[in-house]
Specification:
The protein has two domains: about 1-95, Sandwich (Immunoglobulin-like); about 115-540 and about 555-709, Beta Barrel (Maltoporin, Chain A). It is about 5% helix and about 55% strand. It contains five helices and 38 strands. The two termini are about 25 Å apart. The model is unreliable at about 1-20 and about 100-120 (pLDDT under 50).
Length: about 700
């Protein structure tokens, strides 16, 4: 699969021009691959990391005698000198471990280890871009791994029985305040950023590092790409729009730009839509990234993006049985700058600042609502590498958030606003007690100026190696999160919501085969409750809610058994109950399905220069409340089923490399029902009429032609 991943990444991102390169493989002294090893040339900006099989390819722009450095946590640094005129065909490197036994538990990117990565699924940009049903969406791709649930009317991530707002997203360690496009009721949204902007995407389903806060259930940590090594340009023509990207490089700097325009008019005419669009949805997306090498090891990254999302429709309010004009205008600006440097052999420093601005303009008949969010995030972290057995990190961060909402009605104007300054500190240590036992322990403290409350959250995790290719791990932690904006704007005196995670994990990994089983238990307290939805009375909101969630997850991935084929099987069982919001009793929430199964199959066919992927997803029925029956949440939907596929073909067109990519969702055209809306009043027979909540577009197909110059 190493060859497959390399070809497909090249296929969907850029063409490789003729250039010097050094290929090789990084192994330990037992000939096992070392994953995620840092491979770089001393005194230059050329660098890369080893893949899942230990392979790497380092592009070289420098001339003359070069010194190659290869390093990985737990191993001695490897050095190798060569001349650019006599680069070896392939270099095989064996790293020597800093401790005597070779079976030690080592924290390594791409595996499940003690701490946050132990409970994590790590997907590459290739995995996200090539997974059918995701349509290039980061969050859609993570819906094919354990711990997630199919909530098709939302498009967001619901993890281990938790609400979507319980998952937070970070870019280079800095918070993304609005990672999703704004949405209308029962119309699924998607993430704002392309997976091709990132070289690493870590999804932690629980028990994650004390470095991250304000998330009750899970976090996604995105790592943007580093310094680009070559100039390149691409043009994409899609059935739903067009895109352009360009990269310009210098010896110690690079700048890249991407721009996309999306319009669903043609797609809606071809496949129809269950919505009455007055103007077809439009989307403008642009990003700018600047990278600069500082000294021998320092790197400054700057990221900036702007998005505009517009919808105009005739909305059928089924509850009130009226037709309404509905317009949404969503504008978002996000920017961050981060800096990383090795001060010396023992100390690494990381810092950054992020700015987020989001404004939603929503017009509903004679009501005009404008919601503005401003946020700044400042963070500093220092890591002391110590020795092979012990290292620790500590950091401090500050987050300022201002919220303002104005509601203009024919007779009055209502303004709701608040401001909050959040100060957080964290410390965490990794201790390799023995070659087979590792611990991570630490804690996080936060103070909110709005809530006027300090919180402390302990975190503990560990791993014990049970065999050459297997280990058992555990994690425990408490987590807290401020209530959502829609409630704080009315009652700023609400308290934080809290959760506790208990996780036990077993995994077996041999070469490109991975088996993982995990059980967990989560308890919730101080969840938000209210008497009446959308109440403007502060006394209507309380922290009287509670809940629990427990489950079992299985994961199997195999990239070896079948030639040029990679597949994985993911199964999740979740039993969750809550008393929160306006629920009168503790019950399974409407978004939770007990069983979720995903099968992802990918195959590269060299003879056809093509890549194919098929995804099958099934989820058990979800509960919903039927006011025509006694009790609460007493009804169930049907099973959810989806078969999606994509195909990618590499060819030449207009004297340049070209890619043709086809994505088809819900191939069978099945109508999946996510729940029901009910009329607020009874009909003449004393029955509350209902309407099924389904995807507005039952079947989707997108064709992309990419030219790479």
């Amino acid at each position: 699969m190493r060859f497959l991943v390399f070809i497909l990444l090249s296929l969907i991102t850029s063409s490789l021009v003729a250039q010097l390169s050094l290929k090789g493989r990084v192994l330990d002294m037992k000939h096992k691959p070392v994953i995620g090893a840092n491979v770089y040339l001393k005194g230059s900006y050329e660098g890369t990391t080893s893949d899942l099989e230990g392979y790497f390819e380092l592009l070289i722009n420098s001339k003359g005698i070069q010194e190659l450095k290869i390093s990985s946590i737990g191993f001695h640094v490897f050095s190798y000198s060569f001349h650019s005129d006599s680069i070896p065909d392939e270099l095989k490197v064996h790293l020597k471990e800093k401790i005597n036994e070779l079976e030690s538990v080592v924290i390594t990117a791409g595996t499940f280890e003690a701490g946050d990565k132990k409970q994590s699924m790590v997907l590459s940009a290739f995995d996200v871009a090539s997974t059918a049903s995701a349509q290039g969406d980061i969050y859609g791709a993570f819906n094919s791994v354990p711990g997630t649930q199919k909530v098709g009317e939302e498009g967001r991530l619901f993890v281990r029985g938790g609400e979507s707002y319980e998952t937070k997203t970070f870019m280079d360690g800095l918070l993304i305040a609005n990672p999703f496009y704004s949405q209308l009721a029962n119309i699924p949204t998607r993430g704002r950023f392309s997976p091709l902007l990132f070289e690493g995407m870590l999804f932690s389903t629980g028990g994650y590092s004390a470095e991250y806060g304000q998330a009750l259930s899970s976090i996604i940590a995105l790592k943007t790409t580093g310094l680009q090594l070559e100039d390149k340009r691409s043009l994409s023509l899609m059935s739903v729009g067009a895109g352009f990207s360009e990269v310009k490089t210098w010896r110690r700097s690079s700048v890249s730009f991407t721009g996309d325009y999306i319009n669903s008019a043609f797609h809606n005419k071809m496949f129809g839509s269950g919505l009455d669009w007055q103007s077809d949805p439009k989307l403008i997306n642009s990003t700018l990234m600047f990278r600069h090498k500082v000294g021998e090891s320092g790197l400054v990254k700057t990221f900036a993006s702007f998005q505009l999302n517009q919808m105009d429709m005739r909305y059928h309010n089924f509850s009130e049985q009226v037709e309404q004009n509905l317009i949404l205008d969503d504008r978002n600006v996000y920017a961050n700058t981060s800096f990383t440097d090795m001060l010396n052999e023992k100390w690494m420093f990381q810092g950054g600042i992020a700015y987020a601005y989001n404004v939603d303009r929503l017009d509903l008949d004679e009501m005009a609502m404008r919601t503005t969010n401003n946020g700044q995030h400042l963070k500093f972290k220092a890591t002391h590498l110590g020795n092979a057995r012990f290292k620790w990190k500590a950091g401090v961060e500050w987050y300022a958030h201002h919220y303002n909402q104005s509601i203009n009605l024919p007779s009055e104007q209502v303004i709701l606003q608040y401001g909050n300054n959040q100060l957080g500190t964290f410390v965490e240590a990794d201790w390799q007690i023995s070659p087979k036992l590792a611990l991570r322990f630490g804690g996080r403290s936060e103070y909110s100026s709005l809530i006027g409350q300090s919180q402390f959250s302990p975190r503990l995790s560990g791993a014990f190696k049970t065999g050459q290719n297997s280990q058992v791990s555990f994690a425990y932690g408490t987590f807290f999160q401020n209530p959502q904006e829609d409630y704080l704007k009315v009652n700023p005196n609400l308290q934080t919501e809290r959760s506790s995670h208990y996780i036990l994990n077993y995994q077996y990994k041999h070469e490109n085969k991975l088996f993982r089983v995990e059980v967990y238990n989560k308890t919730y307290s101080q969840l938000l409750t209210f008497d009446t939805p959308f109440s403007m009375k502060p006394e209507a909101y309380h922290n009287n809610g509670y809940g629990s969630s427990q489950g079992l997850e299985l994961f199997w991935r195999d990239g070896d058994t079948f030639k040029n084929t990679d597949y994985w099987i993911s199964y999740s069982y979740n039993d969750s109950k809550r008393l929160y919001r306006d629920y009168p009793v503790e019950t399974t929430p409407a978004y939770a399905s007990a069983h979720n199964l995903s099968l992802v199959w990918k195959r590269f066919v060299p003879a056809l220069s093509s890549f194919f992927c098929v995804t099958y997803a099934v989820a058990s029925p979800r509960p919903y409340h039927d006011p025509n029956l006694s009790g609460y949440m007493q009804s169930r939907t049907n099973f959810y089923h989806d078969i999606s596929l994509n195909a990618t073909y590499l060819t030449h067109m207009l004297n340049t490399e070209a890619v043709i990519h086809l994505m088809v969702n819900n191939v069978t055209g099945r109508t999946n029902i996510y729940g029901y809306e009910f009329s607020s009043t009874q009909n003449k027979n004393g029955v509350y009429d209902r309407k099924a909540i389904v995807s507005p577009i039952r079947q989707q197909a997108v064709l992309v032609l990419m030219l790479m110059f």
